Structure formats: structure tokens, C-alpha cells
Amino acid sequence: DKEVRAIFLRLFAQLFQGYRSCLQLIRIHAEPVIHFHKAAFLGQRGLIENDFLTKVLNGMAFAGFVSERGPPFRACDLFDELVAFEVERIKAEEGNPPKMIKHVRELAEQLFKNENPNPHIAFQKVPRPTEGSHLRVHILPFPRINESRVQELLQEGLARSQGVPPATRGDKKCVVPAGPPVGMLICS
């Protein structure tokens, strides 16, 4: 799975190359707000007519990406290194599949090292099944239903429901008022 993740990491690094140059830090609020200038990004990359990238940039996931990755002072990770330093390498590998696969494997190894800093402590979380475990019956049989007991429970329920009058609410149903229009709330 690390290699699949490495492929997506590379894909998003290629897709978002140069995104940092289109970030704007707006300081008029109590806390600074980071804004992504989509038109500049698409124009710089010559992808204004690209519907896919436009939809990606308009999505909520990208807004979260910008708010998380936008601050100028934060810890850098493998994605930041790819976007900042590996641009030329990724471009050079586009026509050479063996080099691309080698780079994906290097990224996968780095992802593994990031998640498992102490490889000697790593262990398998789910134990392997024992020899012959597939031959054992694991499902307990469903217990037999006692027909006489079922009839007794049905009779008790019927007796209870016939003896008690149906519950009625004294509340009167009405239409919930809509309240004032939104325009009035804003003005006042």
C-alpha cells in the first residue's frame, strides 16, 4: 500500500506544483487567513480550460489542503520536499517508466520509514491464522425456537395492549412559524 500512496503523492505533487506562489496571507482579521489565488495558479500553468483541475481547486478537500499547508512557518514533510525540490526529477522521469518506478519505490520506502521510525519494534498487528484453522467450524448453531414460549409472549403482549387505552397527546398540532426573513435579521 505504500507504493500506491507514493504514486498518489507524486501525482498530487505534480498537480499542485507551484501552489505556494499563489497563496496570499490576509492579515485584516484577528487571525491571518490564507487565500489561494486560483486564477493565477491556473493561468501560470496554462490550465485555465482544464475542468478537472478547476473542480479539484474548488473542492472542500483543496480548501482544507490550503488551510493546513498554507502557513509559511510549519514543519515540512515529504510532500513539501517533492513540490519544492523534485520538480526537475519528476519531469525527467515522465518518459522513462523504469526511473519512475524506482522513484515511486524510494518514496514508498520513505513513507514506511516515516511511519515506522524504529523498524525493529514493528510487529504484525493481526496474528496469522493457525494451521488448519480454515477446517474448524467457527459459527455456533442458532438455538431452536421454542414455539410454545413464542405463543405465550404473543398472548401476553396482546392482553397488555387490549387492556390499556391508546396513549393520546394533549398537544395541539400547528404549523411552525417561519420567523422574520433573513434580510431583516441582517439589517437589524
TrEMBL record:
Q: Name one GO biological process term.
A: regulation of Rab protein signal transduction
Instruction: State the superkingdom.
Output: Eukaryota
> What GO cellular-component annotations does this UniProt entry give?
cytoplasmic vesicle
Q: Which InterPro entries match?
A: dDENN_dom, DENN_Domain_GEFs, Tripartite_DENN
Ranges of residues in domain UDENN: 1-76
According to the UniProt entry, its GO molecular function terms are: guanyl-nucleotide exchange factor activity
PROSITE patterns linked? DENN (PS50211)
What PANTHER family does the annotation carry? C-MYC PROMOTER-BINDING PROTEIN, DENN DOMAIN-CONTAINING PROTEIN 4
Name of this chain's protein: MTMRD protein
Q: Which organism is it from?
A: Lophotis ruficrista
Gene (UniProt): Sbf2_3
